[in-house]
Amino acid sequence: MKRILAASVAAVLAIGTLAGCGSKATNDTSGAGSADGDVIKIGIFEPLTGANAAGGQLEVEGMMLANEMRPEVLGKKVVLVQADNKSDKAEATTAAARLIEKEKVACILGSWGSSLSIAAGDLVKTNKVPAIGASCTNPLVTQGNDYYFRVCFIDTDQGRIVANYCADNFGAKKVAVIQEVSNDYSTGLVKIFSENFKAKGGEIIDGGSYQTNDTDFSGILANLKSSNPDAIFAPGNYTESAMIIKQARAQGITAPFIGCDTWETGPFIEVGGSDVEGAIMTTFFDDKNPVNDEGKKFVEAYNKKYPDKQGNIDSVAALGYDAYMLALDAIERAGSTDGTAVRDAIAATKDFQGATGAITINETGDADKDVAIIKTVKDGKFTFLDTVKMK
Amino acid sequence: MTMATFMQQLTNGISLGSLYALIAIGYTMVYGILRLINFAHGDIVMMAAYFAFFGIAVFHIPWYITFLAVVLLTALLGIVVERTAYRTLRDAPRTSILISAIGVSFLLENLATYLFSGIPKAFPEFKFMTTPFSVGGVLIQPLVVVVPVVTILLLFVLLFIINKTRLGMAMRAVSKDYETARLMGIEINGVISATFGIGSGLAAVGALMWGMKYSSIQPLMGVMPGLKCFIAAVIGGIGNIKGAVLGGFILGLAEILLVAFLPSLTGYRDAIAFIILIIILLFRPMGILGEKQTDKV
User: Does B261 touch chain A (CB under 8 A)?
Assistant: First the structure.
């Protein structure tokens, strides 16, 4: 009896650990042939578990939708292969290596979270497999890497826009900044924001820092309270940010919170509840006012596929859609799945009509966008506030 | 730093410390009896938080019934884990049982990720616990007072059980020498089950407080608190319940006061726990309240 019990426990344990790893193909033809066989594999490199999971899953939703709408290229079926980078920089390289070496994908899409994309950068470059990031905005993702591209604007622009918005629309003189030190995205934005805000004559207060997965922010917030800022700029992961705002309100801090694109994710409002009302963020896309026909098509198809989300499409889903569509467009233009040929085709992209607007890839591999959207949380929903011109 | 800010930091530290203390008790109890570091303890905390989430947010059961059910269910989970993963290895080398504990930890984490998804869930809000009131310029959430009070109360209940009841006497006997205890007619399996039940029940109380305070739960939420509470138990003297509570408070206060006095080091607050651990292990390996042990040859 004991032995049977022990054996069954061991078996359950083994299954449990195995369930956590392994890449799973979303289509039923998984494992059938490689890139030059009868299907073309495209790798989805996203956090599906861990602190960034909600963001990653939203991008995947957009990519799957795009795959349904355009399932073939060069006369071959496109198979999406998912690899979970577990919101962890070390796991990210393992996941990317699996996509490149084992699955032999033609192109990689993702990841939500700039740090995770940066972690995969070297692998992508040395193996000459092009990657297209959807919403990773940190400049370092594409810097010095000919094989990494993206379909979103970058933090150099985003940080400047937020700084200008704080100074001009808010009339803020003194802004406290809180950064997630283990997150390149957050530290990068805080630096860019601070430079731009100081250039406008504002004062920056160091509001402290925290690590990804921290839950208690009471220490830094108690310090911050005594400095009495006009606004608080706290870009970072959505869960931690929502908890910071909640704990700030509990300690009587009433200054408005300002963040960036990562905040526009369902759990930000779920976790933050009524405390995140009035939080302001920059983002990429507004589903109420799509800028072109592709945008309208996307909104219509998305609402049809995910009816329970009606009226609240997250920007990153639209970017996931764009990343997939751009990859297929590039493969078609290249006429093959050869890494270098696809890379050159992506780099030559001009006025590609994506759901988030026209995309032209510039010499650094980033998308030139003309506008950014500013949203706020109102009545438990992300609500359009303003459109800002990039240039 | 103003007085108000300092007092605010002190209350923050005490409330964080008492959460650590609640969870550390579970580590120390199991270690005291089995000489086993139950690595799955942090994940039991996580499961308890999910039980509460489902009870209140999904099934809309009144909170007081849910809380009671969560404590009982979690105690049961602790007992089941012990029966399946540890009891079967009772006579195996200690390393095997330790690895089994790590296995249970991974199993619970992956099971939770699979069942509840990796996306964080919002723990139900309790306005009467979180709406702050002001005392001399210091804003205090009722919860911040409730957590230490509950911790201390539970500590006294537990000390009563251990020192004054038959079960407690049996526990002490088993922890001294379980072979002899067995010879003396103590039903050691029952005693060990009870230990796991009580430890996990306390972890459930910790999880409820944790959920109310930090309002977000996810499958890996137990990992870091689990490690820190283990450290708290070692600091206080592992195997000693008062020590675990003391260690919890020390760790909580150290973390918050580091942030308060050296704001530039806030990024290293997780490191402080490990630094304290190393110092304790170097200079007082048995912990602050621990007793020196001589191993039987």
Answer: no
Structure tokens at B194: 């009870």
Pairing of strands A72-73, A76-84: antiparallel
**Residues in chain B closer than 8 A to A17 (CB atoms):** 103, 106-107, 110
Of the CA atoms within 13 Å of residue A189, those in its CB half-sphere come to 35
Average pLDDT, chain A: 87
Report chain B's terminal Cα–Cα distance, integer Å.
55
Per-residue pLDDT, averaged over B60-66, amounts to 91
B12–A225 C-beta distance less than 8 A: no
Q: What is the DSSP string of B115-155?
A: HH-SS-EEPPP-HHHHS-EEETTEEE-HHHHHHHHHHHHHH
Look at residue A106 in the predicted model and tell me its pLDDT: 94
Q: With pLDDT > 70 as the criterion, what percentage of chain B qualifies?
A: 98
In 3D space, the residue among B90, B72, B5, B49 whose CA is nearest the CA of residue B222 turns out to be B49
| Contact: A225, B8; criterion CB under 8 Å | yes
Contacts of B220 in chain A (CB under 8 A): 50-51, 213
- Residue B45's H or E segment, with its range, is helix B41-53
Cβ–Cβ contact B96 with A under 8 A: no
Backbone angles phi, psi at A84, to 5 degrees: -85, 120
Write the ipTM: 0.83
What per-residue confidence (pLDDT) applies to A169? 85
Chain A residue with Cα closest to B210: A215
Pick the range with the lowest mean pLDDT from A107-111, B20-24, B53-57, B175-179. B175-179
Question: Of the candidates B200, B198, B274, B291, which has an alpha carbon nearest to the alpha carbon of residue B238?
Answer: B291
Nearest chain A CA: its distance from B281 CA (Å): 26
CB-CB under 8 Å, A218 with B103: no
Q: For chain A, percent helix, then strand, then coil, each to nearest 5? A: 45, 20, 35
Query: What average pLDDT does chain B have?
Result: 89
